[in-house]
Structures are given as C-alpha cells and as structure tokens.
Amino acid sequence: MKDLRRYLNTMGSCLLLGAAAAVSADTVAPPAGRPLDVFDRAALASTGHTDLPRALAALLPAYRFAAPFAVNGDDHARAGSLRGLAPDQMVVLVNGKRQHASARFYTSDQAGRGSVGFDLALLPLAAVARVEVLSGGAGGRHGSGAQAGVINIVLDDAAAGGRFEASFGQRRTAIEGVPRFGGAVVDDVAGTIELGLSGNLTEDDGDGNDLVLQGSWGFALGDGGFMRLSAEYQDRNSANRAGYDARQQYPLRPDGSFDVRERTIDRRRSAYGDPALEELNILFNAAMPVGGGVDVYGFTFLGTRNVETFAPFVRAVDARNVPALYPDGFLPKLESDIDDRSFSLGLRGEHWGWRWDLSYNQREDEIDLSVADTLNPTFGAGSPRSFVTGNNETQMSGFQLDVVRGWQPSWLAGPLILEAGVASASEEYEVETGDLASYFDAGLAGVVSERLPAASVGFAGFASELENTRDTDSAYAALRAAVTNRLDVSLAARYDDLDDLGGQFSADLGAELKLVHGLLLRAAAGRGFHAPALAQSTYNRAVRFVTPAGSRESGVYAPDSAEAAALGGGSLNEETAEHASVGLHYAPGERWSLSVDAWQVDVEDRVVLSPELSGGVVTDAMAAAGLADIDAVQFALNGADVRTRGIDARAGYRLDVRRGVLDLDLGVSRHTTRVDDLRSLTTAAGDAVTPFGDRAAAQLEAEHPELKLIARAAWQRGPWDVQGRLTRLGAVTDFGSRDVERFEMDAAWLLDLDLRYRVNRRVAFGVGVHNLLNEYPDVRPTGADQPVEHSLYPFSGYAPFNAGGRLMYARMSATFD
Fold first, then answer.
1. Cα distance between residue 169 and residue 237, in whole Å
2. CB under 8 Å to 783, separation ≥6 — which residues?
3. pLDDT per position as a tens digit, 468-516
4. Sign of CA pseudo-dihedral 319, 323, 328, 334
5. Between the N and C ends of the chain, which has fewer C-beta atoms within 10 Å?
C-alpha cells in the first residue's frame, strides 16, 4: 500500500500518546424535546455490514446512504445524510469531540452535490461501542452545521477482552438493465453497427469480492486505566455495471469501410461501479488516572485507503486519442490515496462539584489524486501516460473546555443541570497542483477540428495552489431542568466568532411533558447556522481546451473568483436555519414502544453548486470582464432558500414465542423538500443570471427518496440468531440536463437476511445476503435522443440505493477473555 512505511511510522509515534487517550463514554442527557436513537455494537453487527455508514443506514430510516457511482472519483469518499438535508448539515462527534469532514468536494451529478461530507467508513466498526443519533437542530450546543442533527460515535472502553471477525462477500447477480452481448453485426453498405444484446448480464466471479478483517483488544493501563486497540483491514474488488458500446471504435478505411477490428473488439470497455479499494484503519483509545481525581484521556485514529475507479473509455477514433500510444483506445484509471488522522488528548476530573474536561483535538484528511493509462493529447506521442493530478487536504485543530454541574433547587422537582464551554479552533483547506503535464498545453495538437483538453484525459490536474483558513472562537451554555414531576425543559445558546463571517448566534429550546404513565409529549424549536465549508469557498479546477477557435477554458471556479464575479458571484455567506418539531413517545413497559415526531427545517441562503453555465449572456459577461477565453462556468453560491419537513415514526415490540424470543421493529421516515426564492445575480452589463435555476432546484427537491421504511424481525433461540430486514425506498427523479432526459426511478423493496450460529460462548459463524431479491434501480432512458452515456453508464447518480445487486457473505467471529 502506498506510503505504508510513513503510515506505520506515524502510528508508532502516536502509540505512546494513544496509550494516554480516551474520552469518557458517559452520555450527557440529551436536550429535552428531541428524539435520541441509540444503536449498540450488537445492533450494528446484526445488519451484516462491515462498515459504519451502511450499518447505520440499515437501522435508521432518517439516515440515507445510497453509495452512488461516479466517473470523477467522488465515490472514493462517500457520505450519508440525515433527514434529506445535505451531508455537511449534520455534526459528527467521536466520544463527544467534533470531527472533520472529508477533503473531497462533491461535484458529480448526484445527491449531495456541491457539499462536503463525513467519511464514516474510515472509522473501524470494531472500535464502536454504540452510535447515538440526536435528530433535529442542535446549533445551540454544537454550533455550525447541526441543522439535521448530531451523530455521536462512542468508542469501546473495555479494559479487557478481545474480538476478531473475518468476513468475505461476493456479488452473485444478474444486472437488470445491462444485457448480455452476443456479438456485433457490422454493415459496411449501410454504415451501421448493431449489437446482439439479450437478457441480463450475470456477474459472479470476483465481482465485488470483499474481504474484511477486524478486531479489538483491551488492556489494563496502570491502576484503573485502560487501553483499547481496534483495527480493520479491507480488500475489495471493483464491481462493473457498465453497458456495451455500439459506437464506431476505429477510423474508417480509405475506401470508407469499417476497420475489421470493429467486429472483434471488446464492446464493454468502460468500467462503472463500486470501486476497488484496499484500506487499513487503526484506532487507539485509552484513559489513565494521574492522581488528584484527574484522568488523562484521548484517542488516536490513523486510516489509509487506496481507491481505484475509471473515467469514461476513450475510443481509438476519438480525437483525444493518440494512436501511436493507444491503438485500441484507452480507459483512464483514477486513483485516490486517502490518509485520515485524528487525535484527541485531554484532562478531565471533578472538583468543587464541577465536572470539567479540557482537551486538545487535531484532525486531518488528505487525498492524493492521480490518473494512469491516459495521456495529454497536446503532448502528442511524447505524452506521459500517468499523472499526479493534485492533492486536497483539510485540517482542523483547537482547544476545548467543557464543564458540567448539577443542583437540586428546592423550587424544582428535579435537578438543574448546567453545561457550559469555550473552544478555539483553526481550520485549513489546501489544494496542491498536479504535474505540469496534467494541465499544460504543450502545443503539439496542431490544427484541430474538435475540442481537445490540454490536460490529462479522465481527470485534469489542479493548476493552482489554493489555501484558505478560518479561526473560530466559541462559547456555549445549556440548561436542563425538571420544572415539575411532569415537565422537563432545556435551553441552549451558543456564540461563534468566525474571522471570515463574524459573530453567529444559535439557540435551542425544548420541552417534554409526561401526559400519563409511559406517554411523553415533546417539542423543540431553535435557530442555527452553517458556515460554508472551506472547500466550498475555495475549490477551483478549470480545464484548458484547444479548439478550432483557439484556446478556451471551462470548469468549477471559486465563488470569489473573477469568473464567478463576472456573473455577479462573490464570497459565500453563512446559511441560517430555523427548526421546529413536535412528537409523542409511548413506552408503557419494557416490551413495546412507539414514537412519532413531525419536524420542519428552514434553511436560508443554502450553499449550492450551480450547473454549468454557458451561452450568450455568459460569454458576454466574461468578455466584458476581460475573460474572453472562458466558455462555461460553475461556482458555489448562496443560491436558494430550502424548506424540508417530515415525519419520523418508530415502533418496537418484543414477545416470547414458543421457540425463542422475537423482536419486531418498524421505522419510517418521510420528508419533502421545497426550494424557494432562487437567487438572481446581475452581470456588469446589467443582464440577469439565475445560476441555480428551476431544473437544479427541482433536482434538489427530488434527490433523496421521500420515504424510507425499515421493517425488521429478529428471532433468537439458544445458539441461533436469525434476522430479516425489509427496506422500502421511495421514488426518485433524475431531471438530467434536458427535458427529454428526465426520468423517475420507481420505489423499491430490498430484502436482507442474516443467520448466525454460536458454536460456544467464544466462536460464532454466520451467513447472509444483502438484496436477496436482486433489486436494481431503474436504468436511465436510452435512444437516439439520449446521451450515449446513458447506455454506457445505465444507473443514475441519484439512484436511491446502490446498484450493486445481490451480495452473499460469510463471516466468523471469536471473542477472548
């Protein structure tokens, strides 16, 4: 694996600090008025998934993780979302400490476009004791980005014992929408190529093979301390869901007939599906008393992932190809080397009635990007065939002090709990340029009749060094009180001072009223904000083209760039959000419970990425700004106001049956999104531009399934555990770039089964299948009026679930004292 030596050296240097590391796993009572879902290790493991985001998506209806495919590498670091909001509109904590988002800025045509997200798959599932999900706005406590809620991952802190699990999965599937190929019929007279296609292509030999090894070991550390080491290794093959290419592949002969190779060439040269990856993640978690009622604590996480996917195939006849280098065309290979490092170290204790926690936290996510098996056509036959295309890196660090104290005033029915804290944090986002040849025009293309990139084909290199920083000072206070025996209230307020956005105030109010035994009415409301991610404010990747009209350029530009300013763009402002919810929770006993919550989130000045803007108004605006060589522009902006409202419901029932115990669980999350007040910008010439128009707004409204339902039945008797899970995902619409490309993907049912047998108290074996019925999202429309990409890449980036098909797996687990 790339940089493995550096990785192990870093791990060794952190080992001593990691031995003094771990945050308390104690959970502070959640604020009144909002639901808190808790999933322990057993629940996560019962899903059969080996990574955290998929396991969480299988348990929590409000969490979406579709895992779409992308042809520009955005699927190398996938992100989920809560309640249909953007991936960066939630806060992720590990042991109560705020985590960093990925360095990846999503530009693909898929859900989450224009945002950044949290790559939860890098966290070893073996290290997790439980996951707590607080749904609803929590800006008064957690600050920026908590519109949708908070996910807190609590790490295992057991001082003894160990676990090991090995899992192997393989796709065995007939790919609905990708037919079998029976040969090509080439007609020189008619000038046509027709493919013999029928049925569905079957994949079952190495397709998506996935080996996962993970374990966790605990050790006593001093008198009353512990250290926990968790590790995960994954090796996964790619899964190809590409279609067949009926286009002409080679130049015609001098007599106008087809090249003889048209009859024999492999017509499935594209590769499109889950990426191949190799991944190693290690986490140290520890705590140790140092005297005087003080503990030293923290955690150290080190993760590395090498990912490989492919850009669109370039045919031999394509003007971008150099036949001397690739006589049969070429398939550019995109590679990402992702290094993620996280470190928290602090002191905690209790003195004079106050619990206090002082910590230093540092996070870093770095993505090295490259492309191989490609070329820069302007270099001709002397072009390199592989390129380093750049580096994206995000960092955050800072100090945090939290204090908690409880009182029992005589005028209250229960304790009054005060939480307060201050924090100082620094963030940085950097882009390093790629090899010169990955973005440079060498001038050897000559006179061209078609548009050629003066860059590495498949993924052009970053041509500019970029850097952006932000410093934030924060203070918060939160109160929770039992006003009467029936009424609890909570209030939280926070002030954040950001050096680029100024002061921001957030507040939340919640209440819970016990109506009768077991029946609770809850309500909450508040105001929060979301500071634009530094990647959204900074990302700039333009590509220079050689055209018959001369050198031209297009791409994604920073919001405050000259290109964006020519269309009225400028620096991003913060999003502001207002949230409200009301719900009922009924739990008359231990056997069953029911909860229903209705909620609404209004986001003003939502940060979005514009579609590609081109045409007369754009070219005129560019020319007026002295940028006459710019053809098309994309940039992030505060483009619209967005309202999302929904209902979350959950019911659980446990019953003793004649042969064991049966747990039944039903969860439903339904939401709708409405986009209002699309921003109109004005060019220097006075022309109006709506960079985020009606089609883009409609796509934002429809990018997530409105309905997600999870019905689960788990039966346990003696050494046997059997679980069945049925998931319903609602319809999703892909609006495409033209009216004719619009299509709706129907709702689907996904069935998962998992069976586990405990040989003894230490060893267990299991088998299972995800997507037993082999469901696939509807394929994109094809035909003469549709882009050829719809045939080559049948599944939309907005597909409501992963287009991988049936996955069968086996696993073995062992525990040690």
1. 10
2. none
3. 999 999 999 999 999 999 999 999 999 999 999 999 999 999 999 999 9
4. negative
5. C
Contact 573, 652 (CB under 8 A): no
Closest among 295, 298, 299, 399 to 350, alpha carbons compared? 295
CB 229 within 8 A of CB 19: no
Strand partners, 170: 808
Q: Which helix (H) or strand (E) holds 526?
A: strand 519-530
CB 208 within 8 A of CB 171: yes
Torsion angles phi and psi, residue 622, rounded to 5: -65, -45
The pLDDT of residue 448 is 86
Q: How many CB atoms lie within 10 A of CB 16?
A: 11
Mean pLDDT of the chain: 92
- Convert the pLDDT of each residue in 350-396 to its tens digit: 999 999 999 999 999 999 999 999 999 999 999 999 999 999 999 99
CA dist 29 to 347, 396, 418, 523, 587, Å? 21, 27, 11, 16, 18
Q: In 3D, which of 712, 803, 717, 725 has the Cα closest to residue 769? A: 725
Q: How far apart are CA 168 and CA 213, in angstroms?
A: 9
**Degrees (nearest 5) of the Cα angle 566, 569, 572?**
155
Q: Contact 228/95 with Cβ under 8 angstroms? A: no
- Please, are residues 382 and 444 in contact by the beta-carbon 8 Å criterion? yes
Give the separation between CA 74 and CA 309, rounded to whole angstroms: 10
Q: Which residue has the tokens 């209230």?
A: 489
Reduce the DSSP state of residue 207 to 3 states and report it. Answer: coil
3-state secondary structure 664-694: EEEEEEEEEEEEECCCCEECCCCCEECCCCH
Q: Which residues pair with 543 in a beta bridge?
A: 554
Specify whether the CB–CB gap between 138 and 83 falls below 8 A: no
DSSP, collapsed to helix, strand or coil, labels residue 324 as: coil
Task: Give buried/exposed letters for 84-95 (b at 16+ CB in 10 A, else e).
Answer: bbbbbbbbbbbb
pLDDT, tens digit, 9 for 90 and up, residues 424-450: 999 999 999 999 999 999 999 878 888
For residue 230, the tally of other CB atoms under 10 A from its CB is: 26
Could you give the CA distance from residue 458 to residue 312 in angstroms, rounded to a whole number?
A: 7
**Cα 739 to Cα 679: distance, rounded to the nearest angstrom:** 22
Q: Please report how many Cα atoms fall inside a 13 Å half-sphere around the Cα of residue 648, on the Cβ side.
A: 23
- Which pLDDT band holds residue 19 (cuts at 50, 70, 90)? very low
Question: d(Cα 157, Cα 412) in Å, to the nearest integer?
Answer: 35
Tokens of 605: 């000045």
Summarised one tens digit per residue, pLDDT across range 728-777 is: 999 999 999 899 999 999 999 999 999 999 999 999 999 999 999 999 99
Q: Give the amino acid at 798.
A: Y
HSE-CB at 151 with a 13 A cutoff on CA atoms is 27
Nearest to 365 by CA among 683, 105, 627: 105
